[in-house]
Specification:
Radius of gyration: 19 Å
Number of domains: 2
CATH class of the largest domain: Alpha Beta
Strand content: 25-35%
Helix content: 25-40%
Number of strands: 14
CATH architecture of the largest domain: 2-Layer Sandwich
CATH superfamily of the largest domain: Dihydrodipicolinate Reductase, domain 2
Largest sheet: 8 strands, mixed
CATH topology of the largest domain: Dihydrodipicolinate Reductase, domain 2
Bound molecules: NADP nicotinamide-adenine-dinucleotide phosphate
Low-confidence stretches: none
Order of helices and strands: EHEHEHEHEHEHEHEEEEEEEHH
């Protein structure tokens, strides 16, 4: 593989636009191709971001031998088919969150990726951001002692729109797969998956999807809690409380560029601020490219076992809330 990575963007919805800007800003990345189910939409997207090729079908993108890695940006319920298509054509994949609708789908995709020796990663950009990595470093080096509690929230008020994927169960709608996946990933990234109990409650709203929820994680020596939802206005902070201090993420914790370390008397010890190079998505792009260059099929920053463990938790919550998974 050359020093430049040829990216293909599969699906040209909202997040694909944000991601395309990051590809164009990231060193070593080339927005080579894009694909939409609609040829005219693909051509418009391609023109906007300078893609060499634009395709009116996902198959054509997957089949293009010059594409090094495909970024899958379709709704959740399409990920399984779209990623499988990429794998069938021997393509590496960075797939948007939530990676699949359930563990069964994910397990199958992971198996195929391993059989074909292809790179596969959930586009959980939070885990590639400098703030998150700084917090990991503070925890690892014992700066806050033993973690006793984590709090993380992610709400994003959005009006009901029956055409929006967020309110359409058949597209994987609902706040869990769209928003709660972030606090769940965050909490488990620091406290692990060995929970004693997970309790939760969810409200269902228009469209028949979970619109707001709260989850409590009980560990042997710690607690964590989170809320997520479409009807709550929140600061979306996250805090990790340890026996010797705490780590506080600024609002919009999952993408903030600022995180602070306090001691147990509440004295500020350190502030880490790393302005994004573009919009924050460039870090996952750079990480995927680094892995491809090093011949890795998984990112050590976001291994598939972590993604699978988060998916299992979400399976359990969805089952508890009456979804058939
Ligand atoms: N990382 C983040 O910060 C972030 C933020 C927002 C969303 N996301 C994730 O990105 C994915 C897409 O979200 P989005 O907000 O971009 O959604 P969106 O605006 O609804 O776009 C989704 C795109 O998927 C394609 N698509 C394929 N099959 C479809 C179907 N049956 N119905 C509707 N669209 C279909 C369409 O593109 P074509 O018409 O071009 O085929 C559509 O424009 C989701 O997995 C979401 O969780 C991530």
């Amino acid at each position: 593989m050359s020093n430049t990575t040829n990216w293909g963007i599969m699906a040209t919805g909202k997040i694909a636009h944000t991601f395309a800007k990051a590809v164009n800003a990231a060193e070593g990345a080339n927005l080579y191709a894009c694909a939409s189910r609609d040829g005219a939409k693909a051509a418009e997207f391609g023109k906007l971001y300078g893609a060499e090729k634009s395709y009116g079908s996902y198959d054509e993108l997957a089949a293009d031998p010059n594409v090094d890695i495909v970024y899958v940006a379709s709704p959740m319920s399409c990920h399984y088919e779209n990623v499988k298509l990429c794998f069938e054509h021997g393509k590496n994949v960075l797939c948007e969150k939530s990676i699949t609708m359930n563990s069964a789908q994910l397990d199958e995709l992971v198996k195929i990726a391993k059989e074909k020796n292809l790179f596969f990663m959930e586009a959980m950009w939070t885990k590639c951001l400098p703030t998150f990595l700084k917090a990991k470093e503070w925890v690892r080096s014992g700066r806050i002692g033993e973690i006793k509690a984590i709090r993380a929230d992610f709400s994003n008020p959005v009006d009901f729109d029956p055409t929006d994927r967020l309110f359409r169960p058949e597209l994987g709608g609902g706040a869990l797969l769209d928003l709660a996946v972030y606090p769940i990933t965050f909490i488990t990234a620091f406290l692990g998956y060995d929970t004693v109990e997970i309790s939760s409650s969810a409200n269902f709203g228009n469209g028949g999807v979970d619109t707001d929820e709260a989850v409590i994680f009980k560990y042997e020596n710690a607690f964590a809690s989170m809320t997520a939802g479409f009807n709550m206005e929140n600061e979306n902070r996250a805090v990790i409380v340890g026996t010797e201090g705490r780590i506080a993420f600024d609002p919009w914790f999952f993408c903030t560029d600022t995180v602070r370390l306090f001691d147990k008397t509440n004295k500020l010890l350190e502030e880490s601020k790393t302005p994004h190079l573009c919009n924050g998505y460039e870090y996952e792009i750079i990480e995927a490219q680094r892995c491809l260059g090093a011949g890795l099929t998984e990112s050590p920053l976001n291994p598939l076992s972590d993604t699978a463990s988060v998916m299992k938790i979400m399976d359990g919550l969805r089952k508890d809330w009456g979804y058939s998974i």
